[in-house]
Design goal:
The complex is a heterotrimer of chains A (132), B (358) and C (219). Chain A has 132 residues and is an alpha+beta fold. Chain A contains 3 helices and 5 strands; from the N terminus they run αβαββββα. Chain B has 2 domains: 227 residues, NADH:ubiquinone oxidoreductase-like, 20kDa subunit (Rossmann fold); 74 residues, Irregular (Cytochrome-c3 Hydrogenase, Chain A, domain 2). The radius of gyration of chain B is 27 Å and the shape is elongated. In chain B, the strands form 3 sheets. Chain B has a 5-stranded parallel β-sheet, with helices on both faces. The chains are: A alpha+beta (132), B alpha/beta (358), C mainly alpha (219). At the B-C interface, α14 of B face α1, α2, α5 and α9 of C.
């Protein structure tokens, strides 16, 4: 039998899942990305765990090491990602449910790409490479 | 210490890239700031893009009648974390604790920074400003803080009053306020002012306000006391992890009783959480280490104006400021005297009852 | 100064001082009232007279049976109100805290939910009593500004108290300020009007009982 507490969790988790569904509908129709800031909501650890359990695990797991570790995991629902950003001191600075084709942070940035290309060419030049 | 010329130079993205910090870090910083500022997460990419394009903003930091606690809390990092990145986004052109220069060369740095960034620099102030006797009670290089404020605020883009002293007068303003100390807003009326109170303030609030300002070119929404709503909108009571005990009526009665050991609510020991607006119940100090209630002491209301004069830290909100037995005695004496006088007057007007039997 | 600082500071201090002065004034006036000389010999000795006075303090709680059809309902409502107010004042944790801070005495309080429930019942009984006072022709005739003011100055603290415990109608510090200020107003008025019955009721009954006892009448 469900306890009073777990029934309370279910209510909040259900509401969040409805919001995820709405964001997915928007993604399908207009390709507009969305996100839910979980740290901005007064969720108990039990609620967060229940939400995580209901969303489940998908096929993709990504680790990003940029000024601290960021972990992004595709949930059991395509296009819905569970993201957690941690700073160098190990403190969680953001926890989100992202609804997107791919989370923005995974994609390489155009400016970084340009800089990388210049670095590549410079490194090749320094190594004394002549033939393309 | 930053060179005042930086503003005409590279963007923040270029500066970070030259240190091997890519756009992902910047986006991560923007996501963290959006969360901290209670902005919708979708705004993070826009913030990151704006931050990337921005040039380093000149900040001039003046320390007035203060204990240096605000500087210590903001600039001490136990380990460099991503929100410290904001301090790379500003060019701290003058700050007396940190700068290597001293004396005349420090003064020159100040003058150069103001000249190079007229109308664009942010003026950060910690400490109150004494006004009595032409402000002689706090001088820097022989000049009163009062005169410095008037002079340097003139060409600032906006003023950040950091800490309760700069925002509201703080401890120097506490009764009897012998130096006539006041906060910045009592002296400056024609500039944008953001108050970031707290004794000391929570460091993330400053980084959040700076990030918002650099990203969007304006200050975040402020409450009636000019404090950023994102951080000062809720009371400590609303975010306190001991709130459940308050609702259940479980209060610690003394600092070492069983209730205190169990972590019960500190209302009866004088906690001012219900009437204090700040972000410390969620953000805490020292990279999220702790805040007074977590350490077993009630909130003292340090981000509220005149909290030093609001009665004992150990008198609960339910108990008022006592009038004292002396005053009570005087009141009783006055009442007795007045009542007796009125009664005797009334008696003199009514007929005496007969002494003997009729 | 914010409203709360005024409420907890100068307003609280001033109202307590006026209260103390007012009580002293009222008691001095009562003590100096002319007393009617009694020429008849007393029926009973002093101990018996004092016992009679003590009895009267309690017997007056219940009206004589003959009067019940007319006043039974209002007596029940009044009892509900008084018991409710007593439970709130002496059972509410923040009130016990104030008493503790000034006297050192303390006792366990009632759960917040119980106090809220009792407050609701108390407010309802007060409103019912007011309606009765306004609609009953004799009561309306007898009622003065003192009666209505006394009612209002007790109603406001109970009302602001229940709103404060809910904490949702307005910001906590505003509600707390209003609660304390409304109590301050009651304190200021109490010594000078009918609210003084709170202190005088037992003394009045006792004296009347002693007088009856002296005459040999039933108490």
């Amino acid at each position: 039998m469900k306890t009073l507490e777990s029934r309370g969790h279910d209510g909040v988790v259900d509401a969040l899942l409805v919001e995820v569904a709405d964001l997915l509908a928007r993604l399908i129709e207009t390709h507009e990305e969305g996100a839910i800031d979980l740290l901005g909501l007064p969720l108990s650890p039990e609620c967060v765990a229940e939400l995580d359990r209901r969303l489940g695990v998908g096929e993709v797991e990504i680790k990003i090491d940029a000024s601290g570790l960021s972990q992004i995991r595709e949930t059991g629902f395509s296009g819905v990602w569970w993201t957690q950003h941690v700073d160098e001191a190990g403190r969680v600075i953001a926890r989100l449910i992202e609804v997107a084709m791919a989370p923005r942070m995974v994609l390489a940035d155009v400016e970084d790409i340009k800089r990388g290309r210049q670095k590549l060419l410079a490194a090749r030049k320094n190594a004394g490479g002549s033939a393309p | 210490m930053g060179n005042a010329q930086d503003l005409r130079g590279e963007t923040l993205a270029e500066m970070l890239a030259s240190r091997g910090i890519g756009r992902r870090s910047l986006l991560k910083f923007a996501i963290a700031m959006a969360t901290s500022l209670a902005l919708p997460p979708a705004i993070a990419p826009l913030m990151a893009a704006n931050l990337a394009k921005a040039k380093r903003r000149s900040v001039i930091w003046l320390s007035f009648q203060e204990c240096t606690g605000c500087v210590e809390t903001l600039l001490r990092a136990t380990s460099p974390t991503i929100d410290q990145l904001i301090f790379d986004f500003i060019s701290l052109d003058y700050q007396e604790v940190l700068m290597a220069a001293a004396g005349a060369s420090a003064e020159k740095s100040l003058r150069d920074a103001i000249a190079a960034n007229t109308g664009e620099y942010l003026l950060a102030i910690d400490g109150s400003i004494p006004t009595r006797d032409s402000g002689v009670y706090s001088l820097t290089g022989g000049r009163s803080n009062l005169a410095m404020l008037e002079d340097i605020a003139r060409d600032a883009k906006a003023i950040l009053a950091i800490g309760t002293c700069a925002a509201f007068g703080g401890i120097p303003k506490a009764f009897p306020n012998p130096t006539g100390a006041v906060g910045v807003e009592d002296l400056v009326s024609d500039k944008l002012i953001v108050n970031i109170p707290g004794c000391p303030p929570v460091p993330e609030v400053l980084s959040g306000v700076l990030a918002y300002f650099i990203s969007f070119g304006r200050l975040p929404d402020l409450d009636a006391r000019k404090r950023p709503l994102a951080y000062f909108g809720a009371t400590i009571h609303d975010q306190c992890y001991r709130r459940a005990f308050y609702d259940q009526g479980k209060f610690a009665k003394t600092f070492d009783d069983e209730g205190a050991r169990q972590g019960w609510c500190l209302f009866e020991l004088g906690c001012k959480g219900p009437t204090t607006h700040n972000a410390c119940a969620s953000l805490r100090w020292n990279n999220g280490t702790s805040f007074p209630i977590q350490s077993g002491h009630g909130c003292i209301g340090c981000s509220q104006p005149d909290f030093w004069d609001a009665g004992s830290f150990y008198t609960s909100l339910a108990g008022g400021v006592a009038t004292g037995w002396r005053n009570a005695g005087i009141a009783a004496a006055v009442g007795l005297a007045g009542g007796a006088a009125a009664a005797l007057t009334a008696r003199s007007k009514t007929p005496r009852p007969p002494k003997d039997k009729p | 100064m914010t409203l709360l600082e005024i409420a907890r500071g100068p307003a609280w201090q001033a109202s307590v001082l006026i209260f103390i002065a007012g009580i002293a004034w009222r008691l001095a006036g009562l003590a100096l009232l002319r007393r009617q000389r009694q020429f008849a010999a007393p029926r009973h000795g002093l101990p018996a007279r004092m016992a009679g006075g003590a009895r009267t303090m309690l017997t007056r709680f219940i009206p004589r049976r003959a009067f019940w059809p007319g006043i039974g309902v209002s007596v029940m409502l009044s009892a509900t109100f008084h018991v409710g107010l007593g439970l709130i004042v002496f059972g509410g944790a923040p009130h016990i805290l104030v008493i503790h801070q000034y006297t050192g005495l303390s006792w366990p309080g009632l759960p917040k939910g119980v106090i809220v429930l009792v407050s609701g019942v108390t407010l309802a009984s007060m409103i019912a009593l007011l309606i009765r006072r306004i609609t009953h022709p004799v009561l309306r005739l007898l009622s003065s500004a003192d009666d209505y003011l006394s009612w209002l100055l007790v109603f406001l603290p109970v009302l602001t108290g229940i709103l404060l415990s809910g904490e949702t109608v307005a910001a906590y510090d505003h509600l707390l300020a209003l609660h304390i200020l409304s109590f301050d107003l009651m304190l200021i008025w109490l010594p000078f009007g009918k609210l003084m019955h709170a202190g005088l009721v037992f003394a009045g009954r006792g004296l009347m009982g002693m007088k009856f006892s002296r005459k040999g009448a039933a108490t």
